[in-house]
Amino acid sequence: MRIIRTIDAMRAAVREARRAGRSVGLVPTMGAFHEGHLSLMRRAREQNDLVVVSLFVNPTQFGQNEDLSSYPRDEARDAALAENEGVDVLFAPSAAEVYPDGFATSIDVSGITDVLDGASRGAFHFDGVATVVTKLFGIVRPDVAFFGQKDAQQIMVVRRVVSDLDLDVRIEACPIVRETDGLAMSSRNVYLSPEAREQATALSRALDAASAVRESGERDGERILDAARRVLADAGITPEYLELRDALALNTVTRVDSDALLAVAARVGAARLIDNHILKGDR
Ligand code: AMP
User: pLDDT value at position 283?
Assistant: First the structure.
């Protein structure tokens, strides 16, 4: 596996692969790999000749009071894990390489970024995501890029950018990988004390409870949400948001007639955690 740090070298590697008629798959990440990341790499490996994993803790998607400086970083461990999955290139540029002096462009996606994490973290967050992902697509020019359903709104934002800017890349969403007790894997889970780790299981249990209510035939949004609210309250968690929105445009829904995104974000101990389920509608 090669570790590439410059945009020029990354472009050259892709150019060579393309000349040989090889397909290119990209897995964008911020590192601190866990099974969620590795599942995306495996999917990319199955489908592509050249697999590129980007490792870049993107400063522009972090707010002033967020965890940019403490975000877990261990490139040597990440490189070993990626190599073990058969990844061809780990693209690990510096912040100065990605955002050189004079950098002045930002991609602002409207509408779907006004709610959930866009409202909770601030509009800058998805601007930062959209901008860096678009740059990665420009640098790597992948045939397909792999993203986790864990960040459901992020996938919607990326799909919007790809569609609106006519980018020639297919976006593949991969299922959420969970710990055995249901907690969605996240690089931020390392912030959890043993007590908070236990408390954090309430997020997935709350989503499970709501899904069970939906699966019993209930369509009323408030009744479905109430099941989740009860689990969170019992665990002493006040969510930043717990919302049911239509899975296509993120409009609020009061009834689950078509597919809906049930999304939660909460501070648990020192970590801000997110999780979601798709609740199936009938159409
Ligand atoms: P991150 O390094 O947290 O930015 O995540 C990189 C990619 O891995 C994103 O597409 C995430 O959605 C995805 N990802 C993170 N956690 C999980 C998980 N538990 N299951 C599946 N994909 C995940």
Answer: 66
